[in-house]
Amino acid sequence: xxxxxxxxxxALNHGQIMAVYVLSRVKVSGTNSRRSNAASRPFSPVTxxxxxxxxxLLSIPCGSFATPGSVENGAALYMVHCVQCHGPGGKGDGxxxxxxxxxxxxxxxxxxxxxxxxxxxxxxxxxxIYYSITKGMSIAGMPPWEKVLTDKQRWDxxxxxxxxxxxxxxxxxxxxxxxxxxxPPSPDSVKRGNRAYFKLLCHECHGETGQGPxxxxxxxxYGDRIWPRDLTRTDTFIGPAxxxxxxxxxxxxxxxxxxxxxxxxxxxxxxxxxxxxxxxxIVWRAAEAQKLRRERxxxxxxxxxxxxxxxxxxxxxxxxxx
Length: 322
Prior knowledge:
It contains eleven helices and two strands, in the order H-H-H-H-H-H-H-H-H-E-E-H-H. With 322 residues, it is mainly alpha-helical. The chain has three domains: 14-64, no CATH class; 71-168, Orthogonal Bundle (Cytochrome Bc1 Complex, Chain D, domain 2); 187-291, Cytochrome c-like domain (Cytochrome Bc1 Complex, Chain D, domain 2, Orthogonal Bundle). The radius of gyration is 28 Å and the shape is globular.
């Protein structure tokens, strides 16, 4: 067994390594003079510029330099953090699975609810799997791991999870869905989106106001009962609540759920504008519902304070009489 070193191990990121290199190339003016004179001399403009560059490089986080994940490291991390729910083979049959509100993902299928690739492929992008690990899915009982695992560790997990499914064997990371036809949010787009919401039958699952109830009894691909998302509560969304993200989910659907892809023909997409308008409508509808909830809460708090104040006055007068 090797003797422990008296110096602690230090892991440098790419920016820090570059910074050390820059420092090694800097020559402070006056280094050939006496030490006392050199110490009193100011840095040259070149030295100052180099020091500024060094500080900038040191501030760059490791995650700014993407590196391929390690399957071996990801496997070790999986057995520590993921096996309890997803099982040793990644089939979603961990010992804690029965206690969760939703069945954990079966990674051997290679399908993920977050998918920002085009509808012409079944594969999710590496960034989608990374996002799912980072942000978690609170509605399904999966916690976010961004405060627990480092950026590199999460990418290692991405590599390992992909290795569990043959769908990803020798397949390149898909390109992202083209969002070039984006329609900016506007009152007109919201009105069109409201009409398109009913035209594409979104109300049959999400309700006329986006809050349910569904007129259908829905089940996921595992046969488990599933309820449509309340579109007025963005904190329960699977993924971000931006127009781009909602448009992407409407386009691709959500794999393993009854939420279908709303693309009839990818090569002649006649529903693109409708999907953008619906996305803008949902964002607007959620914001309006949030505003109403906030106003209602303020009224409740205000009424409670009035009642509390009246009660205090009543008891003070009663105690004064006694």
